[in-house]
Amino acid sequence: MIATMLIDLDHLFASPIFDATRCSINFHPLHSYYAIGLYIILAFIKKTRILGIGLCIHIIADWIDCLFNVSSI
C-alpha cells in the first residue's frame, strides 16, 4: 500500500513542483481521469487488487484535499 504513493512522482514534472492550492486530480498524468479508470479496473482484477485499491485510496485522498482547497478559497 505504501508503494502506491509512487504515483506522486509525477508532481516533479509540474512547475512549480508544489502548489498548495492546486488540485492534482486531472492535472498530473498519473492523476488523470484515464489513469483513475485504470486504477479502478486494477481493483477488480484478483492479481492486482491490492495495488488497485491502494491507488484508488490515494486518489480519494487527493480528491478530498481538492474539496478542502475549494472550500477554503
Keywords:
single chain; 73 residues; globular
Tell me briefly what this model is.
With 73 residues, this protein is mainly alpha-helical. The chain has helices at 33-44, 49-71.
Helices and strands in order:
Elements: H1 33-44, H2 49-71
Characterize the structure shown:
The protein is mainly α and 73 residues long. The protein has a domain at 26-73. Helices cover 48% and strands 0% of the residues. It has helices at 33-44, 49-71. The longest helix is centred in the last third of the chain and has 23 residues, at 49-71. The protein starts with 32 loop residues before the first helix and ends with a helix. The mean pLDDT is 90.
Biggest beta-sheet profile: none
Category from helices, strands and their pairing? mainly alpha
Strand coverage percent: under 5%
Low-confidence stretches: none
Q: How many E strands?
A: 0
Rg, nearest Å: 13 Å
Mean pLDDT: 90
Instruction: Quote the distance from N terminus to C terminus.
Output: 32 Å
What is the 3D shape?
globular
Order of helices and strands: HH
Total of helices: 2
Helix content: 40-55%
